[in-house]
Amino acid sequence: MRVFSIGDTNFEVDVAKSRIALTPDANGLLEINIDIHGDDDVFMRLTEPEDAQWSWALYPPAFFLHGLRIPQGQDGALAIGMLDTHPEAEESGIYMMEYGDVSAVNIIELSARRLLVSGMVDLCGERLPFHIDMPRA
């Protein structure tokens, strides 16, 4: 399943455009950079009606998290947890025609097989839950 939902809408994940990079640094930390993109075809179907909830947007949402550093040596799945406990992350948010601040971001699983993230996003003055669940294999 490839879920990238905001509120009650699943934009799905465009796996070909999405990237997850885990890079060891010189200080013994693992730098995590994540860019997840919604699926263009699904987005077009969702925005086709003039009165659609997301008709104001020109392209699907993109979640980004850059510069998160965690200790290396964690085998298998990385249970990173709440992003608030990792203030060293350089930037994170959801972009959909405008930058949306994210909060309560919880990286539930980051493994070779799966990325699972949940949180809240502020878009156009509305606070909505978001959820990402995508295979990596």
Brief synopsis:
The protein is mostly beta strands.
Question: Could you please describe the fold and organization of this structure?
Answer:
- The chain has 137 residues and is mostly beta strands.
- The protein has one helix and eleven strands.
- The protein has a six-stranded antiparallel β-sheet with strand order 2-1-11-10-9-6, with no helix packed on it. A five-stranded antiparallel β-sheet has the order 3-4-5-7-8, with no helix packed on it.
- It is globular and about 50 Å long.
- The mean pLDDT is 88.
Fraction of residues in helix = under 10%
The percent range for strand residues is over 45%
From the N-terminal CA to the C-terminal CA, the straight-line distance is: 12 Å
Strand order of the largest sheet: 2-1-11-10-9-6
Order of helices and strands: EEEEHEEEEEEE
Integer-rounded radius of gyration: 15 Å
Tell me the structural class: mainly beta
The count of DSSP E runs of length 2 or more, i.e. the number of strands, is: 11
* Biggest sheet overview: 6 strands, antiparallel
Question: What is the secondary structure topology, with strand pairs?
Answer:
Blueprint: E1 3-6, E2 9-10, E3 19-24, E4 29-37, H1 40-47, E5 62-71, E6 81-82, E7 91-95, E8 99-100, E9 102-110, E10 114-123, E11 126-135
Antiparallel strand pairs: 1-2, 1-11, 3-4, 4-5, 5-7, 6-9, 7-8, 9-10, 10-11
Question: What features would you highlight for this structure?
Answer:
six-stranded antiparallel beta sheet; 1 helix
